[in-house]
Amino acid sequence: MSGIDEKNNLKRIRGRVILNNVLKGLFFVSTTIGLIFLALLLYRILTQGIGYLNSDFITSFPAPYPEEAGIFAGLIGSIMMIAIVAPVAITLGVGTAIFLEEYAYKNRWTKFIQINIQNLAGVPSIVYGLLGLTFFVYMLRLGYTLLAGGLTMALLVLPVIVVAAQEAIRSVPSDIKEASYGMGASKWQTIRRVILPAAIPGILTGTILALSRAIGETAPLIIVGAATALYTLPDSLLSKYTVMPIQIFNWTGRPQEEWQFVAAAGILVLLIVLLFMNAVAVFIRNKFQKRY
Amino acid sequence: MGKALQNEAMNIDVQTMIENKRKKKSVSGKLEKLIPAFLFLCAAVSVLTTAGILFTLLRESITFFSTTSIVDFYTGTQWSPWTGHFGVLPLITGTLLITLIAAIVAIPLGLMSAIFLSEYASDRTRKIIKPTLEVLAGIPTVVYGFFALTFVTPLLKNIVPGLGIFNALSAGIVVGIMIIPMIASLSEDAMNSVPNSLREGALALGATRLEVAMKVVLPAAFSGIVASIVLAVSRAIGETMIVVIAAGASPTLTFDPTRSIQTLTAFIVQGATGDTTFGSTIYYSIYAVGATLFVFTLLMNMLSQYISRKFKEEY
Amino acid sequence: MNTLLKQKKVDNKTSVKPDIKENNQTKSEAAMDKNVFEVNNLNLWYGNDQALYEINMNVPQNKVTAIIGPSGCGKSTYLKTLNRMVEMVPIVKTSGSIQYNGEDIFSDKHSVEGLRTKVGMVFQKPNPFPKSIYDNIAYGPRIHGVKKKAVLDQIVEKSLRDAAIWDEVKDRLDENAFGLSGGQQQRVCIARALAIEPDVILMDEPTSALDPISTLKVEELVQELKKKYSIIIVTHNMQQAARISDKTAFFLNGELIEFADTDHLFSNPTDKRTEDYISGRFG
Ligand SMILES: Nc1ncnc2c1ncn2[C@@H]1O[C@H](COP(=O)(O)OP(=O)(O)O)[C@@H](O)[C@H]1O
Ligand SMILES: [Mg+2]
């Protein structure tokens, strides 16, 4: 009656529903491809590396034979690197975030800094390597040292920390800020005693994720001259150093198959460290889940 | 005043205490005045970083172009620095080839994942799958490179005869997988911010979920999706370790994915690790390549930001 | 004049409790013509939009002054001008003068922090810090330099008692203030404001987010507090204004239409618009 052909229409509806279901399946399969890849990767590296992963591997320096090689220098190097990156990047990053969110007037300059930070986050890591090479290694004459590598990495993760800290600070409800100002607290007192404590879970979570990025980065450190084989631990900021990804890269490049297993074992150590850091981040997030 | 002090023990007069403290506190008060200056300096570091990057790349590139013609550099088809050939086209095509393969892998898979997560998956499913997918983005690229070289390439050899040990195909695919979460996650965010009322309107008219997704959600979230893709492509262009490890180091002007190639990034690594001496032409060429790479990615990032800014204004 | 006032205040504060009644009497007599705030020709703009027009108003000491008016008429804006919280909105411009105890609050001589130490504020929505109840109350004294635990303990107890919530929370001072009910949170917020013993307490619709029983408690509390503090309370509830205030100001579209003794204003408004409003004809 209404001009719609009932019979044909039913057919069409069935067709549309079938198409919907077929594509739903396709979408689901597509989603799983990434997950399958992840599972394959983890499984494969686990089976390859587990045989070489023992306490000797963790406590040994590099060696010419696969059985004797270890990741000690890289593990300690990575930890020392983080010990430089964390204080530098957190101070600068949280400082920048506080400045942008609480002090800066919302004018063109602030917007410029903001866009600049966004763009920095998109600069390929290897370009940071070039910056570090010119600025830290040559101009400041730091050479191929732990300090040069650490500072380069600090700049690399800085935008990530700034953005995370900004978001955390922004999500602090304004009514508790007002409460603080209303009691005669100064700006800095309000920041230190109200805003930062409330924002700290978010800041920490973002920072840990940024630091885990620093732990996994390879390319910029190749450029600023991390050593591929190191037989002593760095004993000062101006020592030579290596980190886990560099050692893994080095092992990956060797033709004999055994070195692949060594590389896989190295990857396992790296992934375990990353897993640990992420677990801490998740723990912090859950523990401090805010109640507003 | 004396009376106030006397009474302090039993009956506290907070305002008097505050008044006294206020007088004493002037030192810390002065220190507090320095805080904004310090915070400003922190913020200045990121601006200086950008300036440093621009300055570094520009200065060394200019030195490079004083000995090598910029025209020859951008039109030359042979990249062989150790024999004095500085034609960057092979590195650019190498980069484009990897990016193309990665895009072919990542855009459909990423988008379909986003549609699934945003339009079909239950809240619970989404809460499990999305973070798991994001784990992919957290895996160090050296690990991907290792996996591409030792697993994906041998696997592909069974399917693609004549595939080299080092080849663009395997590296490109793995780069693609790496950027899936970026597209999936950001696109899903964009789709999620499409108001539910739009969906309900279409569903109430008898549309299927598919039709809602395609005809309502995708168009509404279009710019957000495009921005995420552009950003992901920019990541692919700048990706280094996967291509260094799995794509080889043979700068070749080719679009044959089975062959070994070299990307802009991979050359920078090669140039910096070889026995390149400070101040040599090769040393400066690294920066010219770096500058080229930087311009590519910067343009992509700005494009992405431009698109997503427009997107924000829509709502 | 000014020094005299301050001297008087110190004496009030230091005198011990038993005096309060008598003290109060003398005060209320003396306070008849004593104003905490004298507002003259106050205009305020948010950017280009004027929100307050030529306000002239003397706020009496140790009284409850209610501000009523339809929503959007500028009540909150006016209240926040008194402790300069309104300046948190960067586009705000003001003209005119506000004297607090005879001194210009906008003058460079005095810091906003100093002003807000004397002029406390309680907000519409309870807004405790995400800290323990104890730390919430101790916040003010601490930022102003009080560090001794014993002193803080005393202040916390006294403030909570004054805010009539001590008995409810004394066993859970270390718990997060978020765990309290809305009404309790609001009284903790009042206690927090009391902890630095201000002269004036500004309250912006303090009961609008509360249930009737909590509202009643806060209203009783306000009655109690006016013995020691001057209170300015914004309310959209005319019965509340009539119940608890000594004087009432009626605002409309950014103008102060009428300001009079509460009894007088509600029974015998002089302005037609006041009459319309209190008889429920608009708002
Ligand atoms: N932060 C602000 N920015 C711009 N205009 C504002 C702001 N706050 C309030 N206003 C405007 O000022 C007027 C008075 O608002 P307000 O003081 O909140 O009224 P009330 O508390 O009486 O409901 C309103 O027109 C409101 O839109
Ligand atoms: Mg209001």
What would you say this structure looks like, in words?
The complex is a heterotrimer of chains A (292), B (315) and C (283). By secondary structure, chain A is mostly helical. Chain A contains 11 helices and no strands. Chain A has 2 domains: 6-49; 57-287, MetI-like fold (Orthogonal Bundle), CATH 1.10.3720.10. The mean pLDDT of chain A is 91. By secondary structure, chain B is an all-alpha fold. Chain B has 2 domains: 1-66; 73-310, MetI-like fold (Orthogonal Bundle), CATH 1.10.3720.10. Mean pLDDT of chain B is 89; it is low at 1-10. Chain C has 12 helices and 10 strands. Chain C starts with a helix and ends in a 5-residue tail after the last helix. In chain C, 45% of the residues are buried. Chains A and B meet through helix 1, helix 3, helix 4, helix 5 and helix 6 of A and helix 3, helix 5, helix 6, helix 7 and helix 8 of B. The complex binds adenosine-5'-diphosphate and magnesium ion (MG). Adenosine-5'-diphosphate (ADP) binds next to helix 3 of chain C. Chain B: Residues 92-304 form the ABC transmembrane type-1 domain. Chain B: Pfam families: BPD_transp_1. Chain B: This is Phosphate transport system permease protein. Chain B: Belongs to the binding-protein-dependent transport system permease family. CysTW subfamily.
SSE arrangement:
The complex is a heterotrimer of chains A (292), B (315) and C (283).
Chain A lengths: L5 H44 L5 H5 L12 H32 L4 H14 L3 H15 L6 H25 L3 H9 L4 H30 L2 H5 L20 H9 L4 H31 L5
Chain B lengths: L1 H7 L5 H11 L1 H42 L2 H6 L3 E2 L4 E2 L2 H32 L2 H16 L2 H19 L8 H25 L3 H9 L4 H12 L1 H17 L2 H6 L17 H10 L7 H34 L1
Antiparallel strand pairs in B: 1-2
Helix pairs in contact in B: 3-14, 5-8, 5-11, 6-8, 7-8, 8-11, 9-10, 11-14, 13-14
Chain C lengths: L1 H13 L5 H11 L4 E12 L2 E12 L3 E5 L6 H8 L9 E9 L2 E2 L7 H7 E4 L10 H11 L5 H14 L3 H4 L12 H13 L5 E5 L7 H14 L4 E5 L3 H7 L2 E6 L2 E7 H6 L4 H7 L5
Parallel strand pairs in C: 3-8, 3-9, 6-7, 7-8
Antiparallel strand pairs in C: 1-2, 1-4, 4-5, 9-10
The complex binds adenosine-5'-diphosphate (ADP) and magnesium ion (MG).
Roughly how many Å is the radius of gyration of chain B? 28 Å
Structural class of chain C: alpha/beta
> Count of helices of chain B?
14
Hetero groups in this structure are: adenosine-5'-diphosphate, magnesium ion
Q: Spatial order of the strands in the main sheet of chain B? A: 1-2
Q: What composes the largest sheet of chain B? A: 2 strands, antiparallel
- Please tell me the overall pLDDT of chain C: 86
Supply the CATH superfamily name of the largest domain in chain B: MetI-like
Label the overall shape of chain B: flat
Q: Can you give the helix content of chain B as a percent range?
A: over 70%
Q: What CATH architecture label of the largest domain in chain B applies?
A: Orthogonal Bundle
Structural class given helices, strands, pairing of chain B? mainly alpha
Individual helix count of chain C: 12
Task: Give the overall form of chain C.
Answer: globular
CATH superfamily of chain C: P-loop containing nucleotide triphosphate hydrolases
CATH class label of the largest domain in chain B: Mainly Alpha
